[in-house]
Amino acid sequence: MREPLSRRDWMVRTGGLAALAAVGGSGAGRAAVAGAQPRSAEGLIGALRAARVIDLSFTWNEQAPVLGLNPPYAFALNRTHKATHEIFGQAPGSRVSWASELMFFSGQHGAPTIDALGHIGRDLKLHGGVDAVAATSSPGGIGGNLGIDSFPTDLMVNRAVLLDVARHVAGGASDPLPPGFEITATHLDAVVTAQAVDVRKGDSVLLRTGWGQFFGKDNARFLGEQSPGPGPDAAKWLIARGARLAGADTATFEKRPAAYGKELFSVHMMLLADHGIYIVENMNLEPLSAARAYTVALVITPLKIQGASGSPLRAIALAP
């Protein structure tokens, strides 16, 4: 049986993973870790196997909450092993059977999903000033390289920091934040200090509200008009620190109701349209919180769907 590794030993043995986790940092940071990468595929595989793999995904099924602005999730087997064996397994010498299914669901607001940069516009302008009307004039998808198929490969494995706002506000307990609670820059600064972590330019930043506890168990509350999340003040904090991706464990990432005066969904516009920061929603951050795993390598691999406004994910974290 393998001896458990200390954090220090793990970091020494997993130089390659440390290098992967540093992707998205400054050029100097990348150069600094380049020499730490394993010099063979075997070394890299060994480094990865030494990590804890923490699943940040909920299960897609008909009990999973999906916002009403999207089509409902549906799944059914359209071929069973019994049926296919009766057709193809009866021929002389044939013993084969298989199963297949039909699925119907949106790439948005599932378990979890990522928003493409072209998902949200401000004044009919997308990120980079792209004309939103022209970019969505074809049913073939969002143009201007703003669909999810243009998700950058260097963000697929990136250094991520979990800011456990809910646990900090609850004094160390796992209690969720209250409905409609707005996470501010002051909260984020306090959590960074309490957890003794740093958020670096290029990081992915995950905000735990604790509302993942309601996913599939209290869908009315999870999808309701009162849920916690960051407001514009916290969005400015993420932008100022150079985050490239932001994620949370709620259906819409930002606080709901997402109205600030007459403006709706300010945080989405600030991150996606104004600054090109990807948003991941419906993450299961409870395992990271329970493990107190605050700095991890986050693996995010959207489906490469041409022109899509988002994609479902199997999101995982690699931790010491």
Notes on the protein architecture:
This protein has helices at 7-13, 15-21, 27-34, 41-49, 81-88, 132-135, 165-169, 185-195, 219-222, 232-240, 266-275, 286-291, and strands at 52-55, 74-79, 100-104, 113-115, 157-163, 182-183, 204-207, 229-230, 245-248, 259-260, 263-264, 278-281, 295-299, 310-312, 316-319. The protein is of the alpha/beta class. It folds into 3 domains: 7-50, no CATH class; 53-61 and 106-319, Putative cyclase (Glucose Oxidase, domain 1), CATH 3.50.30; 74-104, no CATH class. The strands form 4 sheets. A 9-stranded mixed sheet has the order 1-15-13-5-7-9-12-4-14. A hairpin with a 2-residue loop joins β10 (259-260) and β11 (263-264). α8 packs across α10 and α10 packs parallel to α11 (266-275). The radius of gyration is 21 Å and the shape is globular. The two termini are 18 Å apart. The model is unreliable at 1-5 and 10-35 (pLDDT under 50).
